[in-house]
Specification:
By secondary structure, this protein is mainly alpha-helical. The chain has 3 domains: 1-145, Rossmann fold (3-Layer(aba) Sandwich); 288-446, Serine Threonine Protein Phosphatase 5, Tetratricopeptide repeat (Alpha Horseshoe); 464-546, no CATH class. Helix content is 70%, strand content 5%. The chain contains 26 helices and 5 strands. The chain has a 5-stranded parallel beta sheet, sandwiched between helices. The longest helix has 26 residues, at 125-150. The chain is globular. 42% of the residues are buried.
């Protein structure tokens, strides 16, 4: 086959990931037939991560060819999800999955991170070339909008994708899918529904469009119709794991935890993965099915033991199940290696110490239990709200009610807008027999924070900017990761900048708030709009200075 020296393909820098040396040699030969000579190799997921990191700042990879069955505890799909979640490769890096399994598309479409394409063994250099050329064609058409999307300009990206779809693009369905994703992230659900409908008018029975339409209905408040649609989609597409996961979300939002558990069980059976088995374990614990929870978490711990997706939180959850089923010795045995391996993870260390305290209590070692609980309490201020709830559970179980109430209160104050967090806090209190103080500890905290931010916003509307700024700054200092407070603080300080002009302190403050919100609530409409307004203010200031 004639090489394509000097072509776009030949300039690609490629990484081959396969645990079989013979397969790597064969792939390298095929790439060389296409003129690609800058080729690195990795025999495992861990080797691949090291190779990717070594090239990150100097000639990063343009193309990854990864075998699905890598062995050593991590498959290609798990590696892809890890790399994309951690942004270890450029967004434009092409990822082709290689598999002998014709049903791999079920795995790919079930994930939030699907590869750009997948190749079924055996294939030739010509097959690879045709896939690359098609990818380039798609990339060239969608790239301007994708760049906006990657940069966080979801509104601009949605407009660009709409223009492509209306212009009769060869990749209209891709453009519609991405436009709908932007609108959904911006919480513009009615517009998203219209886009999904447009896709279905072009091609009937497209699962992603049907499911997207149902989700948009649910998110816009039409829960019953969304539920009926999800049931119909699941019946028509028994292998569509997303339909079962969506049904689980609906059931959970309606308080139908047993039905949610059953939907999660079906999802996990369709396409098993650590994340789905973990979700099944979490729900099983919530409904009190400890045997199922034990089975699920043991499966996750075993499956990820040698994997890059290994998480100490799975060990902590399994240890908690052992404690709840009276096997304290097994809980302690499981926790110790995880505590040593993840010493820098303060949230895990707090949870592990709390579970350890309960395990020692179950083993009638009160001295060790007390020491472990004190360690958990010393760590809790440096952790996240979920870890705080685990510590509060141990406090209540060991008769430290005052500490338990204090920790629950702090957890809720950290993010009162997180409905799942508030519900989890109420469950901790209910399970501890403290349901009667739930209103005082949880609901009153939410009301106090809302009252404070509402007062500050009301002052700002009445042009009492100094007073509003002072009040909201106090709230933001006390609750530095509370989304509602940070949004109010950013709004008020942006108002100050727009009316009084830029000053260094307020500008730095707004930038800090928006950066934190980008982490806590990425892509939400109000955060995106505030970011755009802030950039506009900075641009006007620079233009004014220049003139």
């Amino acid at each position: 086959m004639a090489t394509l020296q000097g072509s776009r393909i030949s300039r690609l820098k490629a990484l081959l990931i396969d645990d079989m040396s013979g397969m790597r040699t064969n792939l390298r030969t095929q790439l060389q037939q296409l003129g690609i000579n800058d080729v690195a190799q990795a025999a495992s997921a861990k080797d691949a991560l090291k190779t990717i990191a070594a090239r990150a700042s100097n000639q990063p990879f343009d193309l990854v060819l990864c075998d699905y069955n890598l062995g050593n505890g991590t498959n290609g799909q798990q590696l892809l999800e890890h790399v994309r979640e951690k942004n270890l490769l450029l967004p434009v890096t092409i990822w082709f999955m290689i598999t002998a399994e014709s049903g791999y598309d079920n795995v790919a479409t079930a994930s939030n991170y699907a590869p750009d394409d997948y190749l079924i063994k055996p294939f030739t250099a010509a097959n690879l070339e045709s896939r690359l050329l098609r990818h380039f064609e798609r990339q060239d058409e969608l790239e301007p909008a994708l760049k906006r999307m990657t940069a966080g300009d979801l509104q601009g990206a949605a407009i660009d994708f709409k223009r492509l779809a209306e212009g009769g693009s060869k990749f209209t369905m891709d453009a519609l899918r991405l436009q709908a994703r932007c609108l959904t992230t911006l919480h513009r659900h009615d517009e998203a529904k219209a886009v999904f409908s447009q896709a279905l008018s072009i091609r009937r029975q497209v699962p992603w469009a049907e499911l997207g339409f149902a989700r948009a209905m649910h998110d816009s408040g039409d829960v019953e119709k969304a539920h009926a649609a999800a049931v119909a989609i699941a019946a028509a597409n028994p292998k569509l794991v997303g339909a079962q996961e969506f049904l689980a979300e609906i059931h959970e939002s309606r308080g139908e935890e047993l039905q949610a558990l059953e939907a999660l069980r079906k999802a996990e059976s369709i396409v098993p993965s650590a994340s789905r088995t973990r979700a099944l374990g979490e729900m099983a614990m919530r409904v009190g099915d400890l045997e199922l929870a034990k089975t699920a978490y043991a499966k996750v711990v075993a499956a990820t033991h040698n994997s890059i997706t290994k998480s100490p939180y799975d060990s902590a959850a399994l240890a908690q199940v052992y404690v709840d089923t009276g096997d304290s010795a097994k809980a302690l045995e499981l926790l110790k290696p995880a505590q040593q391996a993840f010493g820098d993870d303060m949230a895990f260390q707090a949870i592990a110490a709390a579970v350890e305290a309960l395990a020692y209590q179950g083993a009638d070692d009160d001295e060790a239990a007390g020491a472990a609980l004190e360690r958990a309490l010393s760590l809790v201020s440096h952790t996240n709200p979920q870890a705080a709830l685990a510590v509060s559970k141990a406090c209540f179980a060991m008769g430290k009610d005052a500490d338990g109430e204090r920790v629950v209160t702090a957890a809720v104050r950290a993010d009162h807008e997180d409905a799942q967090l508030v519900a989890a806090a109420k469950r901790v209190l209910k399970n501890a027999g403290k349901e009667h103080v739930s209103e005082r500890i949880v609901d009153s905290q939410v009301r106090d924070i809302l009252r404070l931010t509402e007062q500050a916003l009301a002052m700002a509307k009445q042009a009492q900017l100094v007073e509003a700024q002072t009040m909201v700054e106090e709230a933001a200092t006390g609750l530095p990761r509370n989304v509602g407070v940070l949004v109010a603080a950013a709004q008020i300080n942006l108002l100050v900048l727009s009316q009084q002009g830029l000053d260094v302190e307020t500008t730095a403050r707004v930038r800090r708030y928006l950066e934190t919100l980008d982490t806590l609530a990425p892509g939400t409409e109000r955060v995106v709009k505030m970011g755009a307004f802030f950039r506009e203010l900075l641009l006007k200031a620079r233009t004014g200075t220049a003139t």
